[in-house]
């Protein structure tokens, strides 16, 4: 009886699979066209090899374009003489095609024919020119004007690259001073007319510095209450925004005792990917002040972690970011024990607040480690945090290591202003650092900025065999 049931069940399964798999229909269709088609065996290994070669060729073209931009930018800087009183009208992305009350183009605006372009996600662009975006918190200083004037030389290279490789999308030069030259002309500010985007985050940092291990040490003693804690939290978030997937990080808070903002990460470093950075930001928001600030133990803990993860983290730069309003303790012995004489770990000190209490010990760190900045308002944070990038990029610049980097995939930020969700585009960027080649500054290691271009992942997928 069991055997009969099994045979019957087997026939039923076979019948169901034949009916629902479409096998019968497929056989019938094949018979209809049997005389006109032939079946060929496909070599999967050959398909993958061909796909890899085509992808390599395509990515090679992108890297060649970026290299030509880097060379042009370095040559332009080499022959440019800095002029403190230089006046130069460039095209400001926020003012393009903007008119005054009398209907005349506003200064730095310019009048341009913008046409919707399928290749640039159906945005209105002008492919004959690039324009400049300056964040609201970066002012039109002489170094900005000189940098913009110098980088005008990139216009011809942008256009030439696009003509040679029509699959190129946005090309750019992000300056170390904060301005952003973007080709082709197009920019949409946020709804308040404020440009919050700073080109020196994300792609810029990955190209400008080697991977790094960072421990952020923040003072949460009673003296840090009110605005000081707000500035400290903003400083931490800004530092986190400068980190990428190649970096490793942890955050330690201290008062009477030392504690990790995330206890699960005690004694180690975690990859600074988007999830971990956002997780840290939520935890930082919950920080409260209490007790007396004893920084010595926090510094010892930080040095111990960095010593223990040698060979495990980024395998490159190591840094401690100390955020405090002052230190009552003398901790020279900590530095002598853990960081001298090699000074392998760089210590960056951010002194918070207008009135500085017990600042002498913090200044001692600065004098012996050379990296110190004073942040008295929220507006000071971005520019002061960015300074550490110049320090960490110096070895690369002095050695002229033109490493090309590819970023992790991200959503195209230009498209975030578009309300159509399906227009969001996954992108990767290829970027390269630009150095000063002037003889008088060669030994100082001056980073001019980063050049790059975006590559839509759908362009890569088009190469994939069906």
TrEMBL record:
One of its GO terms (molecular function) is voltage-gated calcium channel activity. It is found in: Membrane. InterPro entries: Ca_channel_alpha-2/delta (IPR051173), VWA_N (IPR013608), VWF_A (IPR002035), vWFA_dom_sf (IPR036465). This is Calcium voltage-gated channel auxiliary subunit alpha2delta 4. The lineage of its organism: Eukaryota, Metazoa, Chordata, Craniata, Vertebrata. Its main location: membrane. One of its GO terms (cellular component) is voltage-gated calcium channel complex. It is a single-pass type I membrane protein. Belongs to the calcium channel subunit alpha-2/delta family. The keyword Membrane applies. Keywords: Calcium, Calcium channel, Calcium transport, Glycoprotein, Ion channel, Ion transport, Membrane, Signal, Transmembrane, Transmembrane helix, Transport, Voltage-gated channel. Transmembrane segments: none annotated. The keyword Calcium applies. SMART domains: VWA. Residues 213-392 form the VWFA domain.
């Amino acid at each position: 009886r069991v055997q009969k049931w099994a045979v019957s069940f087997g026939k039923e399964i076979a019948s169901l699979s034949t009916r629902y798999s479409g096998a019968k229909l497929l056989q019938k269709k094949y018979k209809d066209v049997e005389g006109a088609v032939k079946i060929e065996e496909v070599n999967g290994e050959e398909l993958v090899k061909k796909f890899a070669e085509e992808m390599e060729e395509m990515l090679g073209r992108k890297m060649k374009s970026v290299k030509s931009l880097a060379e042009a930018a370095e040559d332009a800087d080499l022959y440019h003489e800095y002029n403190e009183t230089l006046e130069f009208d460039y095209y400001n992305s926020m003012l393009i095609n903007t008119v005054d009350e009398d209907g005349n183009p506003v200064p730095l605006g310019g009048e341009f024919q913008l046409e919707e372009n399928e290749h640039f996600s159906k945005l209105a662009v002008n492919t004959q020119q690039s324009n400049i975006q300056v964040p609201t918190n970066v002012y039109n200083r002489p170094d900005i004007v000189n940098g913009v004037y110098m980088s005008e030389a990139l216009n011809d290279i942008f256009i030439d690259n696009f003509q040679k490789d029509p699959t190129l999308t946005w090309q750019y030069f992000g300056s170390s001073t904060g301005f952003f030259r973007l080709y082709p002309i197009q920019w949409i500010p946020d709804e308040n007319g404020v440009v919050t985007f700073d080109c020196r985050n994300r792609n810029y940092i990955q190209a400008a510095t080697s991977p790094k291990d960072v421990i952020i040490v923040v003072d949460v003693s009673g003296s840090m209450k009110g605005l000081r804690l707000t500035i400290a939290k903003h400083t931490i978030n800004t530092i986190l925004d400068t980190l990428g997937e190649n970096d490793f990080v942890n955050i330690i808070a201290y008062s009477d005792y030392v504690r990790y903002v995330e206890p699960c990460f005690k004694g180690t470093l975690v990859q600074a990917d988007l999830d971990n950075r956002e997780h840290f930001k939520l935890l930082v928001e919950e920080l409260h002040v209490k007790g007396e600030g004893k920084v010595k133990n926090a510094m010892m803990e930080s040095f111990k972690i960095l010593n223990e993860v040698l060979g495990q983290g980024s395998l490159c730069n190591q840094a401690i970011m100390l955020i405090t309003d002052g230190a009552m303790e003398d901790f020279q012995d900590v530095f002598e024990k853990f960081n001298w004489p090699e000074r392998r770990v760089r210590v960056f000190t951010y002194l918070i607040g207008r009135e500085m209490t017990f600042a002498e010990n913090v200044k001692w760190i600065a004098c012996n480690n050379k990296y110190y900045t004073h942040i008295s308002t929220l507006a000071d944070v971005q520019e002061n945090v960015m300074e550490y990038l110049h320090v960490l990029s110096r070895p690369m610049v002095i050695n002229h290591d033109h490493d090309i980097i590819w970023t992790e995939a991200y959503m195209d930020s230009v498209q975030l202003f578009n309300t159509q969700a399906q227009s969001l585009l996954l992108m990767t960027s290829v970027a390269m650092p630009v150095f000063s080649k002037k003889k008088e500054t060669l030994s100082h290691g001056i980073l001019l900025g980063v050049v790059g271009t975006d590559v839509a992942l759908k362009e890569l997928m088009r190469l994939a065999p069906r």
